[in-house]
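thought: fold this chain, then report.
action: predict
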Amino acid sequence: MADRGLTGVLLVGGASRRFGSPKALARIGEETLAERTWRVLGEACDERLAVGKVADELPLPFPLIDDGTDVRHPAAGIIAALRVAAHDVSVILPVDCPYMTAAGLRALAGACADAAVPVGGGPIPGAYRRSALPALERCLAEQGRLKDALAALEVGRVPLDPSLFADADTLGELAEIEARRRG
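observation:
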C-alpha cells in the first residue's frame, strides 16, 4: 500500500558505459529494470517521478523529467526531483537496484532527517528532504561525491538486507545478483 505524503524518484540518468547498453532497458524476467523499479516505487509512494536525460530518448513506459544539466551526476537527478516533488520527503531509487522493496523504501523514508541511507550502503538508494537541497547543490556545483554531501546533512542510517540495495554496473553483475536472489 502506497504511503500518503511520499514521493518516489527513479533515477535513469546514468551513462551506462560499463553496462554496454542502457541499464533501464535491461530485462529481469518479464520486466525491464525501469519497469520493475517504477512498480516498486508505486507500491511505496503516492507520487512517482522519473528523472534523467530526455536527450537519451529511452523508450520508457512513463514520462521522464529532464534533470536540466549537461552533466551525469546523481545529485542532478535528486535536485531536479526535490524541486518538483509534491512532498517534502522523496525516496530515491536508481534504476539499477532491482531488488529494493516497498518496505525498504518506507523504512528509509521513516528514518529521514535531512537524508537516510542503508547501513553499509551508498547515498542511493536513500531518502532526502528538501532541506538537503543546499548541500546537494554544492555537491553538483563542485562535481563532488554524493557521499561528501551527506557529511553536511543529518542522516538516518537504516539497517537493510544488503541484497535490497545491490546494484548492477555491468551485465555480469546483473546476472550475479539474479543468481544470488534465486539461489
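thought: worth noting. The longest helix spans residues 33-44.
final: C-alpha cells above.
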